[in-house]
Each structure stands twice: as structure tokens, then as C-alpha cells.
Amino acid sequence: MTTASSSPPFQFPDIMASDSEPDDSYSPSPSQNPTPTPTGPNPAQLLHLSFNQDHGCFSAGTDLGFCIYNCDPFREIFRRDFGPRGAVGLVQMLFRCNILTIVGGGGPDPLYSPNKVMIWDDHQSRCIGELSFRSEVKGVRLRRDRIVVVLVQKIFVYNFADLKLLHQIETIANPKGLCEVSYLGPQAVLVCPGLQKGQIRVEHYGSKRTKFIMAHDSRLACFVLSQDGRLLATASSKGTLIRVFNTLDGSLLQEVRRGADRAEIHSLSFSSNAQWLAVSSDKGTVHVFNLKVDSGSLGNEISRSPSTSPPNSSAISSLSFMKGVLPRYFSSEWSMAKFHLQEGLEYIVAFGHQKNTVVVLGMDGSFYLCEFDPVNGGEMTQLEYYNILKPEETF
Q: pTM here?
């Protein structure tokens, strides 16, 4: 059971910018901040981090409100602090426009309920709509034309303009709020857990087709779509293998190995051209894999010509000629570039707008911009570091 409400007229004048070139004209004035920014000695506590759709910005939910940052060059764009009751547990941007969605972070007397999705218009410095549910909201995903809300065993898809409910999906228990939606093209592709352990459900709204993929034997830990929704990368709770699928027919296109020991995969990200895949885990290492598939030609030739692959193409084991004799471990495709971080922390990753760069965000407030060598691979080079909780820690 859900309820929706909005302040009429429910229109978004700033969200019509091109998908390929998001509207970057919005720069809020300090007077739009609903309450003064606290200046006490205790820094805010991070509750949530997420990139926007093109990975050019990221949002941070804190125990006081939320902040929006630009990735390259790194800078704080604005923050909205709501005071001690204003914890924001989830915040999602819609490209770079003035519309965001926020979900309360809980607490004894929260300003915003964790059972509601609040639609925030930063031009007006207020919520202009809300979606209410009987249970806690676990995730939100946005397109220019859709709002997708994830509960622990159900997903709701709404039309953005009028909050009309378009689709409901039943899922297996999904406490992480796993769900992804494509943002390029006129028709959405949505992926979410199915009703079985390790199963992925793919909704092609353009063709009105549903595809089920048995991605793993273990429970799903993380997955991501390419920008156009044609490629899907998945990881299970084991965290050793990452699989890449064609969402059109469900076929397995490539399998790469993060490592031999178990790990909790926190984040997966395709590069804009789907040539690279980045992976972060609780082991404190960010991996970059070279992909051999071209999402733009999936309807024709799926594999790239070997001549176009870098010499260190995913570091295929030199023992791969014994594939039929030795265990799969020895013929695995390994990452071609790595970046080492503190083990045990949660990090999310995305590819930067500069060529061959990766942005890493940590729940300790850390921001890293790294560069990898697309030919020789190896250890990535750190280009920048900031900490959004400790601005003095910058080098």
C-alpha cells in the first residue's frame, strides 16, 4: 500500500537537459538553505553516498541533512542542514538539476520518515511531493521520466511527472535495496533480484519483455547496468567472481576474478563506453577489468576483435592453455589495474570524466581520483585526495 502526494503543479522545468550533457547551470544561493549550517566542533556523520547518473557529481546523506559535490574539479556545490532531527539516510540526484529525492535516516524523532520518499526542489528549498509506504525504503533510483522505489521485498515504479504508479515487482528479500535502471535512451531497462537466490529479473519496458537470469548460486551482493542497459555485471556474496551478461538474451559474455578468498562486493561500475569495469570490496582494493564486449554491437558481433584489446587484457593467466585440466582459478581473467585502500571500510567507485580515471568515495569521507594505465595496468596513480568530513586533510 502506497500513497503519493505533490504540490500542484508538479513540474520540473530544469530536468529537460540532454542526457549526454546534463544541465550544469543550477547554482543555488546560500539564502535557499532552510536552516543555518551548524559550525560546532563535531563533524557530520556519513549515512549514505551515491553518484549521480553520469558520475560527474555525488551526494552525501548525513545525520544533519545532505551535501552535493562535483567530482572534477572536486568542490562542494551546496549543503542543506536540517538540524539534529534532519538525518538523511538516502539521497539521490537527478543528473545536475534542482530535483532530488531524500529518505529520512531514522532516529527517535526524525524530520523525515524512513518509510517515505521526499521529492526535494532546491529552487524552492522544500519538498514538493512524497511517496509513503508501510515499510522502510531501502533504495531509490531515478530517470528523467521514472522514480523507482525499493522496499525489502517489493519494487514500485512511478511516472515522475505525476507520481502515477506504473508497475509493482515482487522480489526475494532485498535488505540492501539492490536495483538499477538505465538512464540513456527513451525506454528504461530495470534490473532487480528475482524470487530465487542468485536470480536477476530484467524488465525491458520498451519491448514489454521480462527476462530472468540465474547469475549466481549464492545470494546477490551487487550488480550494475551499463548506461544503455545492454550490459549487466553481477557479484554474489562469495565476492570472488564478477559476471557480465547481455540483458537482451541473458547470455553470459564474460567472467572475471576479483580474488580467491571471499569478499563483500560494495560497488561495481562500467565506464561510459563499457570497455572497463571497476570493482570495490571490503578487502580495500579497487580493481579495474578490461571487458571484451561492446554494448553498442550486441545485436551484431558481441566480442571485440582481439587486435583491439590491450596487451594486458584482464591479465589472463599464462596457464589458460591447461583450462580443461586445472581448476578454473588458473584460467581466470584477473584485473589489469588496482588501487589499494584501507581494508574493512566501504567504498563506492565510478569512472571519472577524464580518460582512464576512477573516482573512489569512502564512508570515512574520503575522495580519491586515480589514474590507470590502459596498456600496462598495475598499481593506479593517485591524482587527488580530499575528505569531506575533514576538509583540512587534503593533498
A: 0.83
